[in-house]
Amino acid sequence: MRGPLGAVIGRYTSSDGSATNDGIIKHNRKCRDITFLIIFIAFWVSMIVNSSFGFNQGNPLRLTYGLDYEGNVCGSKHRHRDLTQLELRYWLNPNQVYESGLKDGELKLANARTICLLDCPAPTDDALNWVCDYPDGEIRLKMNDWIDRNYDYFEFLTPEMRNSSLQLQGPCYPVIFPSVNVYWSCQYIARASNSSLRHWQQMGGVTIQEDMIIDKSIRRSMNSRASVLKRYVADIGKSWPVLIVCGGLVPLFLSIIWLLLIRHFVAAMPWITVVLFNMLLISVTMFYYLKAGWIGNDAVTPIIGEHDPYFHVYGRELTHVRGVAILMTFISVVAILTSIAIIRRILMATSVLKVAAKVIGEVQALIIFPAIPFAMLAIFYMFWISAALHLFSSGQVVQNNCNNTNCCAYDLVLKKVNCDRCCGYSIRYTPHITIAIFFHLFGCYWATQFFIASSATVIAGSVASYYWAHGEASPEIPFLPVFASMKRLARYNLGSVALGSLIVSFVESVRFILEAIRRRTKVSGTTPDHWFWRMAHYTSRGCLKSVEWTIKSVNRNAYIMIAITGKSFCKSSAIATELIISNILRIGKVNVIGDVILFLGKLCVSLFSALFGFLMLDSHRYRDSHNKVSSPLLPVLACWALGYIVATLFFAVVEMSIDTIILSFCQDSEENQGNAQHAPPLLLETLDSNQEEEVQRLTH
After folding, report:
1. Mind listing the pLDDT tens digit for each residue in 269-321?
2. Is there a cis peptide before residue 171, judged by omega within 30 degrees of 0?
3. Which of 359-363, 395-399, 461-465, 590-594 has the least mean pLDDT?
4. d(Cα 500, Cα 568) in Å, to the nearest integer?
5. Which domain of life is it from (predicted)?
6. Could you tell me if 455 and 647 are in contact, meaning their C-beta atoms sit under 8 angstroms apart?
7. Each residue of 53-93: pLDDT tens digit?
8. Phi, psi (deg, nearest 5) at residue 269
């Protein structure tokens, strides 16, 4: 049976029985949940070690550019070759590309001979153009001269070299098909140049296949799941200025503005929030319609640079954008209907927000305090994103095994056609890399929840000081309650916060794994057919989501009691749950409506961030130049997520103020036979009107 908190929160008696006057919630505390703090510190050390592996082995350029016939990454500098300017991967032998597209073909596209170029070569009508291997051996050309000659030194070849070139074994290869830059690879257009083909035949070259398979083979490789995932991850690295502006600065500015408006225009803010939310949701949906090509001519395209407007290349990214556009349409309709349904409850939310506005006015440091966890999270995310890019690209470049295929090519150093080591190169990912990536993702979620929980606990401690000093002399409130609360958190309660954030992260991870398994079974066609198993399948999903929501709600109230009482996480959760259950009829609806308005406010900030992200990504820098992103989908989603996290940090000032005052009110009422002695009059008026409405509803 727990004792009264009034003695704990207000004035208390010291261990020797004498009265003390050290202030609010400064009772005898001690460190709690130390084991989980040690686990959290050990986890951070593991994160650093895990990230160092990525920084040592990874190269983010691998996510964007392909490999050449020597295993070099295009667009980067290597020990023997500087390919910094040569970003485009080009398949030299068209017959190898054709064979890789056959169902029973032995040669894979990964083993077809590729080279890094500055631009995609094109055939001409008056002569036959050639693309030759990097100058080496007897070909004494510098790389810059080779580039200036359009990669052509056919005139310098010996008769033996020319003969092997006519057999499509190099070192020079004819340019028969036009090609276009598709995601930094030159994709063949399956329309051979008649004049170039005629020149090739007159020189006695081998037959070159002209089937459409030559087009589809490269397209199939470019649209594979692995290739699309790499491009999405690379988009995050390319759009880092967008993430800083739209995922950091914009939500920071908007969140502070929202808090100031709550402070001075609280009566109008619920209405403004609801209307603004629907307008922003519709605006973001319209941008997705634009990128899906359903409005205007600005659809997502995989082609980089100028090209024939009548030539179209399919990219899986366009399908994803259209899917999100449909989803956003459904969400917009539901949001508008829900907004209409809650209009009658907005007045109640206004009353609750007025209480929070009064707290912010009394403890003004709360408005700027979230800037501290914001700065810490910003530093963490910069480190985490950089490490994630290196981890995703930390596989080993190895030469493929293709002994059973014909990939012979002329070796300028050996001065002969070599069939022994002519296979292509690929990046091999070991299972431990996959584990490292999932560990990194889990670490991000846990760290984010930890920072949010720490911020919420500090705010709760500050607001509790305000509530329990109500009616007493102002010196009872610490001069800087926010910093006093920060000191208590750092000294006593970091372990409890680590435990609470770990529980949320673990439940969310389990739900993510189960959802991934569900999608995998759905794709493989192994979804249970019997109605009972289907019902159990969907029921388990719903239950897990409910458990996640409940734990987050319990955690939030537990952080409040941790800040007030200094007890462990589990004990604080029990106290908070008992208080809420005892007063559910009195506070339930008020708390829910307030949370709904605050949730819509967070979405407004995050949608603004997504909208600004769309506008920045629509500039030339990210459309046609070196930093072109394959799709705005993931950068915009990242801006939305970062905006929501920043808004959560700042909106916690209002959210935790309301929850802390309500929990303090419940304890105040319980200790004083149902008559709260410290509650603000505005809170009493709001709760009493809510209780009368509930009684009338139950009576009728």
Report:
1. 888 888 999 999 999 999 999 998 898 888 888 888 776 666 777 788 999 99
2. yes
3. 590-594
4. 10
5. Eukaryota
6. no
7. 989 988 899 998 989 988 899 988 888 888 888 999 999 98
8. -65, -40
Task: Return all residues near 465 (Cβ < 8 A) that are at least 6 apart.
Answer: 24, 25, 363, 477, 478, 481, 484, 485
What is the per-residue pLDDT across 569-605, written as a single tens digit (0 to 9) for each?
888 888 888 877 776 666 655 566 677 788 889 999 9
3-class SS of residue 82? strand
Close Cβ partners of 678 (under 8 Å, ≥ 6 residues apart): 467, 468, 470, 471, 664, 668
Residue type, 649: L
Alpha helices in 25-142 (DSSP H): 34-57, 94-100
> What is the chain's length?
700
The DSSP string of 232-269 is: HHHHHHHTHHHHHIIIIIHHHHHHHHHHHHHHH-TTTH
Other Cβ atoms less than 10 A from the Cβ of 335: the count is 18
Which residues have a Cβ under 8 Å from the Cβ of 44 and sit 6 or more positions away? Answer: 447
Name the burial class of residue 346, with classes exposed (0-12), middle (13-18) and buried (19+) by CB atoms within 10 angstroms of its CB: middle
Contact 580, 518 (CB under 8 A): no
Which residues, including other chains, have CB under 8 Å from residue 549's CB and lie 6 or more apart? none
For 512-521, letters b (16+ CB in 10 Å) and e give: eeeeeeeeee
Question: What integer is the mean pLDDT of 114-123?
Answer: 91
- Residue 417, helix vs strand vs coil: strand
Q: Whole-angstrom Cα distance, residue 621 to residue 619?
A: 5
3-class SS of residue 80: coil
The 3-state DSSP class for residue 284 equals helix
**Dihedral of the CA atoms 240, 245, 248, 252 (nearest 10)?**
180
Work out the angle at residue 159's Cα, subtended by the Cα atoms of residues 154 and 165, and round it to the nearest 5 degrees. 50
SS3 of 2, please?
A: coil
- Given a contact cutoff of 8 angstroms between Cβ atoms, the answer to whether 452 and 420 are in contact is no
Place of tokens 């072109």: 628
CA angle 231, 236, 239 (to 5 degrees): 115
pLDDT tens string 370-390: 999 999 999 999 999 999 999
